[in-house]
Amino acid sequence: MPQNTGPGQENWYSGGEEARQKSDWYAAMPPKSPGPAAPAPEEYTGGRMKVLSLTVCGVLVCAAAVIAVLNSGFVQRLRGMELQGSDRAYSYAYDFGDGGGASPVLPEEQYDDFRDYFENYYTGSGEVDIPRAPTDTGMRLTLQAQRGEELSLREIYDRVGPAVVSITAYVDGEEYSWGTGVCFDGDGYIVTNTHILQSADRARVVFPDGRDFEALLVGADESSDIAVLKAEGGQDLPWAEFGRSAALRVGDQVAAIGNPLGEIYSGTMTNGIISAIDRSVTYQGHTMTLLQTNAALNEGNSGGPLINGEGQVVGITNMKVMGSFAASVEGIGFAIPSSVVKSIADELLEKGVVSGEPTIGIVAGSVNDEAMALYGLPSGIYVTEVSEGSDARAKGLREGDVITAVNGIHVTAVDQVNAIKEGMSVGDSITVSVYRDGETFD
Question: Are 384 and 118 in contact (CB under 8 A)?
Fold first, then answer.
C-alpha cells in the first residue's frame, strides 16, 4: 500500500519506536511551499540516530534528505473488506518508499477543516502516473551464463557504462527526483527502481552520449522495487548484458555504476566484492532477499547496475545502511538479484503489472502531532485516496477517513498495515477501524 509522508517523517527498518523515528527515503516529493534550506551532505548521515538504518539510494532534486516521523493510532471497525489483486501501474501489496512528500504547514496557513490541512500537507499519492508504453510486445529480459572471461575495471566500464542512464522524474512539470537505470535492449527498455518514480507524472532518461528521451512506463512493482521504462522512439541504443546472480559467491569482485547525488556525479563507478548472498532485509512489513556489497553506493545510485567480473549486470542497487553519530557505517549496500529482476521485469513487460498481490486499494499517511493538536484527530493513518473499483470504496471507505486499527491492531503508520497484510491472499477479508466526523463506526 503506498503511503504519504510528512515533513519531519522518516522510516526505520528496525530498532523499536525510537528507531522507527529516524530513517528516510530520498525519493519523496518536494514541498509545495518553500521549506528550510537543505542540510549540507555531511549532515544527513548524522543527527541523533542511535541504531543503524537502511535508506534507498534515490536523491532529491530539491533537498539532500527528507526528515520523517511516524506517529501512533486508535480504534473501531469497517468489516469484511476484501483484499484484491493489483490492477494498476504497480502493486499496492506493500509500502515501499515514500508515496509522495509533504509540505510544511506554516502558522499563517492554518485551515478550518483538517481535510484542507491534509490536502496541503500531503502533495502526492505515490502512484506512478507516467504515460504508459505498450506491453506484451514479446520483449523479455535475458540472463546469460558466465563465459569464464575476466575483465579489468576499465573494460567493465567501457562495456556497461554507455548503457547506464540518468533518470529524472517530474511532478507537475517540475523536477523532483533523480536516479539511475540500465538499458537492456537496443530499443530503449530500461530497468530501474520503483521508488524513484513514485508520484511522478513524467520522466526522462539521458544516456552518457547525451541522447535524451521521454520515458514511458511499461510497469512498476512496489513490493519488489522494480520498474521498467521505455525510451520513447529509442533505436540502436547501447545496452548491457544481464548475468545470473545465482552464480555469485561471497568474495566475487563486483562494480557499481550510477549517478550519486544527481547529475553532477553521473557515471560514477565504484567497486568491491559480494559481501553476502541472500541477505534478508525487512522494510515496511515486507522482507526482501538482497545481495550485499561493499561497493560504495549513495543517494542517486538507485536503479543502477551491480556488475560481475565479466561485465554482466547481476543486480539492481537500491539500498544502503547509514550510521549515526554513535556508529559510523560504511560499505554495507544492497542490490536486487538479477534472478528477481528478470522475474518481475518479464511480468511487467507482458502485462504491465505484477498480478496476484493483495491490495486494500488506498493511499494513506500518518496523522501527525500537529493535526491531532489542531483538529482533535485520533492517531492513525489518514486516507488521501481510495481507488475506484476497490472493495474499500465499495464498503464505504472515503478520502478523509482516519484508519486507527486493522484486524484489531492499533496502527499509526502504513508499514504497520503492510505488516498485517504480510502472508494474506487476494480475497481474504480484513476489519478496519475508522474515525469519521467525530465518530467511530463499523
Answer: yes
Cβ contact 209:162 at 8 Å: yes
Helices (H), 180-283: none
- Percentage with pLDDT > 70 across the chain: 72
For the annotated catalytic residues, the residue numbers are 195, 225, 302
Nearest Cα to Cα of residue 114 among 367, 414, 412, 440:
367
Among 240, 236, 183, 174, smallest CA distance to 206 is for 183
Beta bridge partners of residue 102, listed in sequence order = 122
Task: Please report which confidence band the pLDDT of residue 427 belongs to, taking 50, 70 and 90 as the band edges.
Answer: confident
Average pLDDT, the chain: 77
Q: Side chain identity at 97, as an amino acid letter?
A: G
Rounded Cα distance between 30 and 300, Å, is 16
pLDDT of residue 377: 92
Q: 29: pLDDT confidence band, cut at 50, 70 and 90?
A: very low
The three three-digit cell numbers of residue 67, written as one number: 526528515
Number of Cα atoms under 13 Å in the Cβ half of residue 377: 31
Query: 50 Cβ partners below 8 Å, 6+ apart?
Result: 15, 18, 19, 22, 324, 326
